Amino acid sequence: MTVAQDNMDVAVAAHGDDRDKFEGVQTPFRRFLSDYCESKLAVIGFFVISAITLVAIFAPLLAPTDPYDLASVSIMDSRLAPGQAMMTGTTAHLGTDGAGRDMVSAMIYGLRISLGVGIGSGVIAMVIGISVGLFSAYAGGRVDSVVMRIVDIQLSFPAILVALILLVTLGKGVDKTIIALVVVQWAYYARTIRGTALVERRREYIESAVCLGLSERRIMFRHLLPNCLAPMIVVGTMQVAHAISLEATLSFLGLGMPQTEPSLGRLISNGFEYIMSGKYWISVYPGIALLVTIVSINLVGDRLRDVLNPRLQK
Amino acid sequence: MSVFIIRRLLQAGLVVVVMSFIVFSGVFMVGDPIEILVSDDADQEERDRMIKSMGLDKPFIVQYGLFVAKAVQGDLGESFVFNEPALLLILDRMPATMELAVVALLIAVVFGIPLGVWAGLKPDSLASKSIMTGSILGFSLPTFWVGIMMILLFAVYLGWLPSTGRGDVQVILGMPISVFSWDGFSHVLMPAVNLALFKLSLVIRLARAGTREVMHQDYIKFARAKGLSDSRIILIHVMKNIMIPVVTVLGLEFGGLVAFSVVTETVFAWPGMGKLLIDSIGQLDRPVIVAYLMIIVFLFVFINLFVDILYSLLDPRVRLQDVKA
Predict the structure, then answer these.
(1) pLDDT single digits (tens) B123-149
(2) Is B139 in contact with A298 (CB distance < 8 Å)?
(3) Looking at the complex, does the CB of residue A260 fall below 8 Å from at least one CB of chain B?
(4) At residue B325, does pLDDT exceed 70?
(5) Domains of chain A by start residue, with CATH
(6) For chain B, what is the domain count?
(7) B177 close contact with A: CB closer than 8 A
(8) Looking at CA atoms only, how far is residue B280 from chain A in angstroms?
(9) How many CA atoms lie within 13 A of B216 on its CB side?
(10) Are residues B191 and B269 in the same domain?
(11) Angle, CA of B132, B138 and B139, to the nearest 5°
(12) Residues B60 and B160 in one domain
């Protein structure tokens, strides 16, 4: 490094705010951000999914009515067309469902359940998958081949069937659906992180960590794990979209979520019986909400894969 | 080679045994079949007699043993609802499911490969970009919702296609097939397209990736230098080379089609084995659920075994690696 460059670095460090003025000085995060923003679709996807998440979090504040409050839901309001007024005087902008719930409110609360189940199961599956995969890669040998065989066998069965068997056994409910989705997903994470970890393990920084006499646990979680995280972010994003779609499908089949806590899938399923009589709104609107959610997550995931994949970088 | 096959066969057998235990113990916990079978006004004595005659008073492990002993002889129990052997009931519905899956697979291949090759040849054109965006949609759209929308559009509003059921069935070569009559075809079209969407996106992506890779190879440049026409290069030289991954993945995914037909059959009331499964779950018809799951396990283990062995024949590195490990 030349003296001039050295001075510049010192200058940059001293005036952190002026960083933008120096071309070529980039933090990894900033490079990632500008790479990501090259795709307009991905940026739109990010904003849409952020908005959806906010709506889900603040559901009780945003929903015009409380769809779980049995006192305010009247059967007299059932299957109102979009735009008609309900008994309580509120206008049902997207109509009402078979039980007389306002569709807008039911969808906002349904979104909350769908997102919650998708993200919740994704996070739990990720933690389990990372632990198993890292352990398997670090242990190597016989342990590794047994663990990976189990992963292979599980992945050779379609996710929907495994989840179906589990839910038939466990019954309905939020917790049970999350368990089923975790069982279905952990193997994807385990396989991905093991693949990355096997490559990273041979790098010099791991060797030097071993030479320093650090404990195995420290090497695994403080040195190996942070360097394996990029692919996990991509798999995680895609898996959350997958989990939301799977939960909706299971709820549609009558498993998964109970009638009292309708997720988007359950709402679509409820509307399906009225579709023949042309009462489209009960199925169509929750479906569009589901679709927008899944597509925007996938757009973000697709872009992340391109940006974070070192093989594709120029 | 034989060592490899024996190892794989043993492994497949182990998977079947483990899965049978998981499936049986899982379904064992579901509901109480006595509640369904005995009429409400039956007294305790009658209930006890029923429990005894069905062997439900025996400990779990004995019941599992009896199930395995019978299953080996091809008897997977008798349906509580239909009073027929569960296996026959499922085999009876199987042709309908297989027909749906095969038609869906054909749709995926016939439309997916040309679209994918096109997107691979001209990656920057508008058409290719729309094809690729479309394939993201195909991955993202939940199958059942697309099915409902198709019914809404084509059956309710336009009235072009029937929304439910299977059309006239003809027996061709000993198989009940409906797709060759107009009535049958119009019934199978919507469910098959619905089932095919996901695989169609997959084929498009595979064909595109394959084409982009193959186009840079020396043999393509050489074919160009020889002065072969573009159509010949694409149809013969490119096609042959991209078909390998496409065929492999489709072979593996056929099982997935059969599994996913559970959803499509429920939406379109297609009388296949997937709909039977969902109905049986609703009615807590344990033997049918167990029999269905066992058949699917067999199907998957068989497909995987077949692909593994085929692979080892094509690529000796696979079996050498396995023997060493």
Answers:
(1) 788 888 888 888 878 877 888 888 888
(2) yes
(3) no
(4) no
(5) 51-68+94-290 (1.10.3720.10)
(6) 2
(7) no
(8) 11
(9) 5
(10) yes
(11) 95
(12) no
